[in-house]
Predict the structure of S-methyl-5-thioribose-1-phosphate isomerase.
Amino acid sequence: MKESVLFWPVHLKGRTLYILDETKIPQRIVYLKVRHYHQAIDAVVTMKTRAFGQFLTVCYTFMLEMQKADGLSAGAQMRLLERVAAAFNRSRPTFPFEEVTGMVLGVARKVSGSPMFRQDFISAMNGFLEQGIRQKRYQRAQEAAALIKDGATVLTHCNVSGELPLVAEFCRKAKKKVRFLATETRPYFQGSRLTAWELKREGFDVTLIPDNAAAKVMSDGDVDCVLVGSDRSAANGDFANKIGTYQIALLARHFGIPFYVLVQSSDKLSSGREIPIEVRRDEEILCFAGRNLAPEGTAAFYPGFDVVPHQWVTKHIAIHAR
Amino acid sequence: MKESVLFWPVHLKGRTLYILDETKIPQRIVYLKVRHYHQAIDAVVTMKTRAFGQFLTVCYTFMLEMQKADGLSAGAQMRLLERVAAAFNRSRPTFPFEEVTGMVLGVARKVSGSPMFRQDFISAMNGFLEQGIRQKRYQRAQEAAALIKDGATVLTHCNVSGELPLVAEFCRKAKKKVRFLATETRPYFQGSRLTAWELKREGFDVTLIPDNAAAKVMSDGDVDCVLVGSDRSAANGDFANKIGTYQIALLARHFGIPFYVLVQSSDKLSSGREIPIEVRRDEEILCFAGRNLAPEGTAAFYPGFDVVPHQWVTKHIAIHAR
């Protein structure tokens, strides 16, 4: 099946990591060339990559640093990986960097006694990404497609890292018509720039709406189900996703519309209350494309995420980690 | 009391109408110079003026045309006013142009037998605008201020045509602290460009949030009441306002937060279902400041307004027409 470039937005080739610069879409498809983990951290903090792209960036950055570490002892290699982990853990609050780096360090420790430590680590990580992640994302997309009825209109918010075109493709294979309503998703416009772009590119039916029109399209009877992704989930099924997901879930509940979420299941946190919410810089809502939307110095509050309680989720469509 | 420039954004001086170009705020305060009613219609269609500005534009455009009509017979003057009315009635669907032009034609017909038709019409209109509108808006702002408790945070959406700083000023006079949360109000950014701008300019406490954060700030307990304006109301108390007002009202109801609306009462329509909803051009959500947010040709749906059912309104704060 053809994949959206957003489905696997990071690639490691030799000693260079290529990270899709999502801020340049839809104008251009450009990859940042990363040769040192500090550059990878920077791509995360400035949101050049996000969501699943962050996950891949973490995994591949460890592999990149190991590619370059041929002159180091196994102990020094392990310490290097620990520095990389610590740097990612400090980068952004809501995404579970600690879980991901902890998992990768676990893989490293398992093979650290081997005389082929570097090669074994890289090969174990490649296996994990292909079998543990790529294949499971395909399964999850197929599961989601099975929930969508023929002729349905699916409302989505933000961007599910290239998985929505795959869901649409599974619907097409099953001869089911599906139409998407994508919220534009201020302030980063993931809906306009990424979701509408990738769905249109693959020939699927997508209509963009302002975030403010979600309740209107629901009350007009134009939404059959909601399907969103998740940036972090808790053991009880609460999950955090892009700011605005919470109000869409509440509206869906009011209108009796099924609400589905694609999650990576996790049991590190017991409930959504424990998920830290990143507050982004005021400038990100005060300016756009170099133009001031509000006078300089205006106070702003831009929480990057909100948490949807598990009771409002009709079905979690999960990848179970390892 | 000092008025926001948005409180009375249109002025007639001699044979020129000055319409505040709201699209240039916050960068500049610029007035369009209008000498013919076609230019006034254009300012309405392109949303250079909006909401209460549209109301003033209609009233003053009739007065402008009468200023210029000194060479015409009374019959020809009346026919001119009817052409102006017909042109406004065709301009945009949701705002009640027919009600406003009908009211103005009524004023004209009342004095059309007078030998001083032009002067009497202009003087009657001036009286109506000063006593019937400006004074009543002051009273309405004072009534709204009385509902706000000391220390309250008021969430607002879009822009209430300069009336919010007046509400804040009445609170200040009553020694009540008030803080505003303004949604940015995509896609036209009235919240960022107008509401935050005018409140900050007059020294009031305002914080801008993405439209997507409304439910989050409510669930965090950060909102004591909602106060919005209205573009059109029905006899049963339903009202239309900028797209997104409906979902804010629904969220407020869920969280038990009082929801107040400043309306011009009207009994022309029996319920909100009869209010026609303008659908704006796709480009208005696909582009911003000359930059494409989504690929060209992406489908979009941008209803300019939505309708809040009267049951969700805690209190209507009304101006009763005439």
